[in-house]
Amino acid sequence: MKKDIILAGVGGQGILTIATVIGMAALHEGLQLKQAEVHGMSQRGGDVQSNLRISSKDIASDLIPEGKADLIVSVEPMESLRYVNMLNRKEGWLITSMNPFVNIPNYPPIEDVLKTIWEVPRNVTIDAEKVAKEQGSIKAANIVALGAASPYLGLKFESLEFAIRTIFAKKGEDMINLNLKALLAGKNYAVKRT
Amino acid sequence: MQKLLLLLGDEAIAQGAIDAGISGVYAYPGTPSTEITEYIQASKDAKELNIRSSWSANEKTAMESAIGMSYAGKKSLVCMKHVGLNVAADAFINSAITGANGGLVVLSADDPSMHSSQNEQDSRFYGKFSLIPVMEPSNQQEAYDMTRYAFELSEKFGTPVLIRVTTRLAHSRAGVERKEIIEQNQIKLPSNLKQFILLPSIARKQYDILLSKQSEFENDAFKSGYNELIKGTDNSIGIIACGLAYNYLEENRHDNEINYPILKVGQYPIPTKMVNKLYESCDEILVLEDGYPIIEELLRGLLNKGKKINGRMNGSIPAAGELNPNIVAKALKLNIEDGHPKPEIVQGRPPSLCEGCSHTDTFTALNEAMLDYSPGRVFSDIGCYTLSALAPLESINSCVDMGASITMAIGAADAGLIPSVAAIGDSTFTHSGITGLLDAVNTKSPITVIINDNSTTGMTGGQDSSALGRVEDICRGVGVEEDHIRVIKPLRRFHDENLAIIKEELEYNGVSVVVAKRECIQTLGRRMKLKAQNKRTNKSV
Q: The complex's ipTM?
């Protein structure tokens, strides 16, 4: 088992939380893990990404080689395209939220962004904010996106649920339930769609 | 099996230092080194062991405090980003001459590709320059193990030891296995109480001692196991892979048949015997090192008359930027999987000031005030407010090094650019701005200094600022006239009065300081959240 995952978004959108959930789920299944994060200057509203590698064998590089990522999971549509060069052309999946985060004056028309995404073979797009809202709070949009990616991660869904329970434990039962519901709703959407 | 800890490279170093028995860590925050000290500050073990860990005013004070702890016989760690080592360099270089008493380990985190920095200088040069051993881990476990080993080495040879990491390792997580905790040292002064007095007569003796240790340093690097010759069957190329570069080589070895002999390097000075063995057995050499071509240059020499040496200097590897698996693959002439081409629709998304940031209001007012003068007069510094260089604000004209705003404004004013303005943060001001302000006061320089006081070290994530609540007092103490220390609250609703104050001070023919005071909205947000959380928990109890 080996999955190379690029997580993408804008600083502050919660991609490190997604990384932490996947990471804990992977450890729960006894897998090896390497996760390169972005800290510092870029966190201030700039584009951020994380290279997350999970495997049943030893992992050498902290960075995923270009053209070899199995998955791009993004919480922002234009950001999902920024790293499309990393994606494996033959088998890679691109899973992204459809909700644009517009903090630059030259953000392209969202229809054009989505059209470009839909041209990538093997893509899943999800209105993560709408789905999250239906589950109780727009704040869980990142976990909805994770849910939509969950069928492609090669991890048991229960492991992801376990990770959410552990990671959100400090934040109380309400937060745990919200995120568990968001995870499931994201997954159901992706399964129904494909 | 013991449960692995999932740690960033930085955190592995911190845990390694705690377990090596340090009595203190000294540091000034700087990406990518900040998380080391933060980890120790948050560590329950460190608290129980009474390890001191508060932030220092700058890297030089941090380095000197660490030397002091070493003098007293205890183990200390000092951490900084690569450019911080420039600030600490005076103390650092001379600590090699004094030598260490208690274990003294200096951690410098380099930032090739300049993810969050002004240059990509390679700290290994500092190790060579100061003639001390350098450790360069290739993964998180080595980061932990080498930190422990660095303290052992430091005490064995009575020398400071440098650990060099790069951003990728500092900010990447993997499983790390902990080992037993070594006890802290008791106070024990050096047997020679003159060892740390670098008067020329003593410094000469100490320098001789340092020189005499060089062969032992190299011999240790030969024996420690951190440099390793890995045999191969194809001798057309011999590969030297330093630190993290070894992982990128390994990555390619997983997918391809690569049977070249390899010298994996993790400890310097690099053992000549090992290099010679590789060199003699192979047709040509490929050097893989993140940062500058330090080993490559040594091997080529000035005349480059030996075997072909491939690396950054002959274009096998790009001259600038960090390595990655595909750069290494290309240097090995392996086939590379092409990804999808990057669509043109993707626009750049540079970092920006947060919504509601005080700096936006300050620079909006400053921009308007500067309309009365010709452009190009605002010297700035290093912090979040450097982002005011970008659209839409485009307020500043320089960012060189910590503290340079004030001193560059002095020089420009001396040259006749009057008024000249400096824009500096509260933490940067105490790091390296105060002495510059003193220069300005002493020469009655016609400059206006805007101190963006957001009560924190914002850019690195909100660490305590040494100037907390004392910026005006410091300015007063340095000798700025009371009438020209003005405090404004950067909020949109105060724009007109803030603008008037800045304009007045720009017209003053002497040193004036405008303190723009409002808490960082990130730290404010976190504080409010915590408050609400505490309220909730208290209620439920």
A: 0.92
